[in-house]
Design goal:
Length: 232
């Protein structure tokens, strides 16, 4: 098969604008004691950076270990469950703090999901990233998440917002994180802060979500892409 188009689905991170901690220290090679033995030519660029970050900055994928002490982390989670056929469902009619019920979700899915699919949810609210509306979003009823796990049998979920968790009508969080605990406790990762999902609505594409493999880490920023293949 030939590639028809590749879509970028991850935000470009600006360390100066991130809500959570992210620091970048970039120095020419001689500025680092451990690298000072490598000389550079005068005026040449030989840059090495150190980055300190919260693992939930930007577009990131949360692994089962985030809410399950026996769950897999970014170091050991199988890559085959981060790559595959993907369907993107339109939930943009739901506004901030509106609940998406199990019945709503089943009607929206309308037999579009196949067992083993990756499923992304489009709200269009990714436009609010780096704004005071960054956390505006609808949320899923917990039994809707249960339906995705037990009936739809998805392997990875993604949203173009700050999350999928239930919350109070004034946007404040509830005690605990029942949606995260159910999804991640079932071994299914969650991508938060996807972007640019509208072009892949109504298509079946392949997506790739590849965080850095680090043992003991529950989440990490990821480059997420979609590939639309030419029909054979």
């Amino acid at each position: 098969m030939k590639i028809k188009k590749i879509y970028e689905l991850s935000h470009r991170i600006d360390p100066d604008k991130e809500e959570y901690r992210m620091e970048v220290d970039s120095r020419q090679v001689e500025g680092w004691p451990q690298f000072a033995k490598y000389p550079r030519l005068p005026e040449a660029q030989y840059l090495i950076s150190e980055v300190i970050l919260c693992t939930h900055v930007g577009t990131h994928v949360e692994m089962p270990f985030h809410h399950d002490k026996h769950g897999l982390d970014t170091g050991d989670f199988p890559v085959e469950n981060l790559v595959g056929e993907t369907v993107t469902l339109d939930i943009s009619r739901f506004g901030n703090n509106e609940e998406i019920s199990k019945a709503d979700l089943m009607a929206i899915a309308a037999d579009q999901i196949k067992p083993g699919d990756i499923v992304f949810f489009y709200t269009g609210l990714d436009k609010n990233y780096y704004s005071d509306k960054q956390h505006d979003r609808p949320y899923f009823a917990t039994d809707a998440i249960g339906w995705l796990i037990d009936d739809a049998r998805i392997k990875l979920m993604g949203v173009d917002t700050s999350g999928h968790e239930i919350r109070h009508k004034d946007s404040t969080p509830v005690v605990g994180q029942p949606n995260h605990e159910l999804l991640l406790g079932s071994g299914i990762p969650l991508i938060e802060y996807l972007t640019n999902l509208k072009p892949i609505l109504g298509k079946r594409v392949w997506t790739f979500t590849l965080p850095v493999r680090i043992m003991g880490v529950e989440s990490f920023p990821a480059r997420v892409i979609a590939i639309d293949w030419e029909e054979a």
